[in-house]
Design goal:
Radius of gyration: 36 Å
Order of helices and strands: EEHEHEEEHEHE
CATH architecture of the largest domain: 3-Layer(aba) Sandwich
Shape: elongated
Structural class: alpha/beta
CATH superfamily of the largest domain: NAD(P)-binding Rossmann-like Domain
Number of strands: 8
CATH topology of the largest domain: Rossmann fold
Distance between the termini: 111 Å
Amino acid sequence: MHSNSSLQIENRPTIVAFDRERDKSEQRREGQQTGGTANYVILAELLLSFTGAAGARVARRMLYERIIARNLTRKKAVAVLLIGAGRSGVNAANQLRAAGTLRPVGFLDDDPKKTGLLVAGLKVLGPVSLLSSLVPKHRVEQVIPCIPSPPASCCAAYGRHLNCWA
């Protein structure tokens, strides 16, 4: 028994092909595990990237809206009350904010489900019947009807005191 080679045990040669096959199967298993881990890493990176991009957009918009609100209060913009909290009311509120000369105070809407809700960042203060009590409270100078057919009482009854746009 001479041990010149590590491949021989008791003068018998070991089967090298068997060892090579075993090594290949171990490498395949390790490769499959690495591939699975890589998929999780890619998925995690995708989710983090999406969350980061969405967060940046939300932060930018909040900052932009805060700057606009600050500018409106500095300029002493004209307080405006919007009648109708539907699509046209939301569009009107956004356009008024962008223009910067008029400051929307809130919405009046006869739908009781909307009372108290925030629509386009403005509170729905109540039904149109509360118009006379809300004007002095919020120092409203203009009322803008944002509904397809505004009630005649809106402009007729309060037209003397307010600049009512139709």
